[in-house]
Amino acid sequence: MTLTKRLAAEFLGTLWLVLGGCGSAVLAANFGGDGNPLGIGLLGVSLAFGLTVLTGAFALGHISGGHFNPAVSLGLWAGGRFSAKDLAPYVVAQVLGAIAAGFILLQIARGGGGFSIDPTAAGTFATNGYGVLSPGGYTLAAAFLCEVVLTAFFLVVIMGATHGKASAAFAPIAIGLALTLIHLISIPVTNTSVNPARSTGVAVFAGSGALGQLWLFWVAPLVGGALGGIVYAWLRPNNE
């Protein structure tokens, strides 16, 4: 598969992830107001993120590997599963896909009544944050630790599920469920990133608050991704 097609697949897959996951948070989480049974809430948003990865991996994984996340690409490189020369192009494609999704989501959201972006509000436009911009008011240290640990485990799941001795047909299911679980744990803490592209794609439209804290949602997932890749490579027997 040519690099151009692989990058196109990463662009589309990341667009789908951000549009589906962040779109569910912006458009459907509180549909009808608090307490309305039509709103999907935290559980629904968690499932939406997991489903975007699951469906995207089934559709595009055989073309590009289905990373859709700079932390995943870095972690796979750290674990010996991905070429260093393709790392920067993958990250660029992923970030562009996420920003395209953020732009599309913004146009859709503006078509509804009462939509606004408050740059001082936690989770505005599905952004990530810590301190006053954390949904639960969690500190920078708590947010950093949460993102590092959960991204590291996400990489362990990804590398284990896609190992040659694992069932390839079930890999997207395991990965999608892992991302669902990660969101169930960490939406109250950071609104869940574990993906620098996902964070960037909405932050660029949300104002100074989210942009000012975006650094953490690059540094922590990248550190966690690299740690997860290294740990799995160490766990794996030398002859595998």
TrEMBL record:
<comment type="subunit">
    <text>Homotetramer.</text>
</comment>
<keyword id="KW-0997">Cell inner membrane</keyword>
<dbReference type="GO" id="GO:0015250">
    <property type="term" value="F:water channel activity"/>
</dbReference>
<feature type="transmembrane region" description="Helical">
    <location>
        <begin position="38"/>
        <end position="60"/>
    </location>
</feature>
<feature type="site" description="Selectivity filter">
    <location>
        <position position="49"/>
    </location>
</feature>
<dbReference type="Pfam" id="PF00230">
    <property type="entry name" value="MIP"/>
</dbReference>
<keyword id="KW-0677">Repeat</keyword>
<feature type="site" description="Selectivity filter">
    <location>
        <position position="183"/>
    </location>
</feature>
<feature type="transmembrane region" description="Helical">
    <location>
        <begin position="168"/>
        <end position="189"/>
    </location>
</feature>
<feature type="site" description="Involved in tetramerization or stability of the tetramer">
    <location>
        <position position="22"/>
    </location>
</feature>
<feature type="short sequence motif" description="NPA 2">
    <location>
        <begin position="195"/>
        <end position="197"/>
    </location>
</feature>
<comment type="function">
    <text>Channel that permits osmotically driven movement of water in both directions. It is involved in the osmoregulation and in the maintenance of cell turgor during volume expansion in rapidly growing cells. It mediates rapid entry or exit of water in response to abrupt changes in osmolarity.</text>
</comment>
<keyword id="KW-0472">Membrane</keyword>
<dbReference type="InterPro" id="IPR034294">
    <property type="entry name" value="Aquaporin_transptr"/>
</dbReference>
<feature type="transmembrane region" description="Helical">
    <location>
        <begin position="215"/>
        <end position="235"/>
    </location>
</feature>
<feature type="transmembrane region" description="Helical">
    <location>
        <begin position="87"/>
        <end position="109"/>
    </location>
</feature>
<keyword id="KW-1133">Transmembrane helix</keyword>
<feature type="site" description="Selectivity filter">
    <location>
        <position position="192"/>
    </location>
</feature>
<dbReference type="GO" id="GO:0005886">
    <property type="term" value="C:plasma membrane"/>
</dbReference>
<dbReference type="InterPro" id="IPR023271">
    <property type="entry name" value="Aquaporin-like"/>
</dbReference>
<keyword id="KW-1003">Cell membrane</keyword>
<keyword id="KW-0812">Transmembrane</keyword>
<protein>
    <recommendedName>
        <fullName>Aquaporin Z</fullName>
    </recommendedName>
</protein>
<feature type="site" description="Selectivity filter">
    <location>
        <position position="198"/>
    </location>
</feature>
<feature type="transmembrane region" description="Helical">
    <location>
        <begin position="138"/>
        <end position="161"/>
    </location>
</feature>
<dbReference type="InterPro" id="IPR023743">
    <property type="entry name" value="Aquaporin_Z"/>
</dbReference>
<keyword id="KW-0813">Transport</keyword>
<feature type="short sequence motif" description="NPA 1">
    <location>
        <begin position="69"/>
        <end position="71"/>
    </location>
</feature>
<comment type="similarity">
    <text>Belongs to the MIP/aquaporin (TC 1.A.8) family.</text>
</comment>
<dbReference type="InterPro" id="IPR000425">
    <property type="entry name" value="MIP"/>
</dbReference>
<dbReference type="InterPro" id="IPR022357">
    <property type="entry name" value="MIP_CS"/>
</dbReference>
